[in-house]
Amino acid sequence: xxxxxxxxxxxxxxxxxxxxxxxxxxxxxxxxxxxxxxxxxxxxxxxxxxxxxxxxxxxxxxxxxxxxxxxxxxxxxxxxxxxxxxxxxxxxxxxxxxxxxxxxxxxxxxxxxxxxxxxxxxxxxxxxxxxxxxxxxxxxxxxxxxxxxxxxxxxxxxxxxxxxxxxxxxxxxxxxxxxxxxxxxxxxxxxxxxxxxxxxxxxxxxxxxxxxxxxxxxxxxxxxxxxxxxxxxxxxxxxxxxxxxxxxxxxxxxxxxxxxxxxxxxxxxxxxxxxxxxxxxxxxxxxxxxxxxxxxxxxxxxxxxxxxxxxxxxxxxxxxxxxxxxxxxxxxxxxxxxxxxxxxxxxxxxxxxxxxxxxxxxxxxxxxxxxxxxxxxxxxxxxxxxxxxxxxxxxxxxxxxxxxxxxxxxxxxxxxxxxxxxxxxxxxxxxxxxxxxxxxxxxxxxxxxxxxxxxxxxxxxxxxxxxxxxxxxxxxxxxxxxxxxxxxxxxxxxxxxxxxxxxxxxxxxxxxxxxxxxxxxxxxxxxxxxxxxxxxxxxxxxxxxxxxxxxxxxxxxxxxxxxxxxxxxxxxxxxxxxxxxxxxxxxxxxxxxxxxxxxxxxxxxxxxxxxxxxxxxxxxxxxxxxxxxxxxxxxxxxxxxxxxxxxxxxxxxxxxxxxxxxxxxxxxxxxxxxxxxxxxxxxxxxxxxxxxxxxxxxxxxxxxxxxxxxxxxxxxxxxxxxxxxxxxxxxxxxxxxxxxxxxxxxxxxxxxxxxxxxxxxxxxxxxxxxxxxxxxxxxxxxxxxxxxxxxxxxxxxxxxxxxxxxxxxxxxxxxxxxxxxxxxxxxxxxxxxxxxxxxxxxxxxxxxxxxxxxxxxxxxxxxxxxxxxxxxxxxxxxxxxxx
Amino acid sequence: xxxxxxxxxxxxxxxxxxxxxxxxxxxxxxxxxxxxxxxxxxxxxxxxxxxxxxxxxxxxxxxxxxxxxxxxxxxxxxxxxxxxxxxxxxxxxxxxxxxxxxxxxxxxxx
Lengths: 883, 110
Description:
heterodimer, A: alpha+beta, eight-stranded mixed sheet, six-stranded mixed β-barrel, 27 helices, 22 strands, globular, B: alpha+beta, three-stranded antiparallel sheet, 15% strand
């Protein structure tokens, strides 16, 4: 109670201290008046009475001071005073203040922004309950990449694996949603009914999926994502139990997912899938050949990752023995969900943070130099303050407050930068971050920012202590400032800091150069096809109208013709998968004449179903044989086209054209297709990973339900798209069209990560170079100022302006060279870290290194030019006058 | 301040002020007079100590201050004893009695 009352009093004293002071004066006046009156009553003269009263009362000022002190807020009041002083003195030096605030903002903004990424990816847990137990379960074989499970394997693994409390499968896809306004393609995920239970996610509305929904033949149901519910159905709860037409079938809505749910499915984008449909699966309908299920598992309590993995390997082995034709060589691997989503992003994020830290170091070096230089010029001011009674602690506090003000302002601005960086976030999450990552500016980021700002402020506040003793020992008032900054240790530190800045800037520039060249290499690689003037859009054949293979292939055949006939279109063709995008269809093919080595299975090769004339439309060269033609129908002999890389694997005599390509579908079923052509390779792996073998089939012989049309036209997209849409709508009104994109856009999108990295790298390098240039400028200017007298003397003794100019530059050259050499060495180490992200560029690329070295040398020399020119103009008379 | 009588220790002054205020609210000068008159001149109050004490006790919440008008129509700052202050007075007086009797015991040993 006492403490509360005390605090309340202090609080009042802090803000109304002035009034309290006045009140005290009034009280004192009253007291003395009463005392005086009494003395007068006792017979004293008024004058004497008043004097006695004053003596009795004692010095008012002293009392006032004591009263003020007793109020207990002196520290706070003094700090307020310090604050006012600090702001005033900073306002008097706007250039200095603004520069410091900006650089602090840059440094702190940079590390805070990258910390936001680190926080979201490394520190914050995945947004699921018990997320540490969640794993992805994959099939493996001799291939380096794990792949999906077959439905029969999934059922067997689920039944036999004891170390998992639950298994669930999902398949991302798309579906046609038909409503009053028409048909639309909507991202959809098919999941086993236990999917949401496994994730421990309850629907926000409705009961969700029940186990019986997964029984083949049961009524189709669907769940909506929160955003789908809000945007398509206006958030109306009455949507529950309603029927929706999805893929031509009636689905009953049984649930809406909560807004906080994030689908653990990479590549779908921030909003996530809109519709969720149960997979209907049982032992009777499961097959062991098609690998298309992605599997999510939850480890049982107390089971370790290794135990579970080992158990699954055992299960896979047993299945391998039981079904040698389909499961030979297949094993299992489990990957914690966290690594699955974040694994690829860890390295780049850490590198980004590293770059930000380096930038911060440069900023700090710059600031240190600045503060030191500053401290020198203020020595006189401090000496004066000390001589009139300011305690040294008070002065120190003043300095710290000043620097804290600068640092916190910089931090505030840095916060603005972080928020601006947040605008980049959707782009980042689309291109390389998982949608599951919850990257927000939250308390941890705020705390990080605040702590950084305070540390910077305090550290730089303490810096002037360097040489503090000299302030007090030297009677600075008597000393000329010519001695400022010539102490050996200060000089050493100053120069050392500039060298460090140059070194770091070189390192950052080298890395940026590598990233830029890597991007260039990627874009320069001829993709093996013609990128310009091509428009792409996907088309789904409505299942309910084209339910069998014949019908579907006829649909697409006619669609191809319709598109070719659209005015303005030069050529059109169809493919199941565009280049630059991930292909979902893989299988094993062999050249029939060859006998594969014992116990190995042929590698998985991607394949596509394409229409006639596709290679011509895409500009992919046909090296041998022919393209597909409309004569390749479902009734004709089966044919296939392979790419150059695949053809390299042919070990027979002569050309593979004319030979048979075989694919084992099941023990008693093998499809055989005659190879009719070889086409050029397409460099379409966005990461420049090289060329893969590929196989193409005519879609008439291997129909799919959705294809992408490629249309060549000299007209721009805005002109031709509406015409195309109309043509397709006239042809088949219920076929939804996906968003049209030019082929160039598709290609560019696959490089978005590299582009972002190159851009950021360039920005950081630019800032680093700029800052180090400023550092050199400051240093040379100081040097020139200090040696003014010397220059004046030299001029008097016969040197001319050019000599002085050269002298200054010559002084600064060894520093620059030292910094650049150190930077090159630093670069040699640091680029090794970057090497995993580079393409077509050696981490020790001489061009990048020499460019960075040259740039920094040039910048440093340029930075020295201005002060050198000032030195050049030293007039001996002017300088000597200063003695 | 009279040179002869020593300064009162802080706690004693507090206790006396509280005692005076327990009779009726009073301004600073009045408190001084009361203590001086009440002790028949034996106790002289150092003004500085008094006002510091008043400030301290206000901070602790034992007394409150309010501006009132005196009989002579002058504005003065009156101090009022609070409930907490009343309790504190009791504690202080008890402590004083204990101290006094202890001192008496030692004194009567000789």
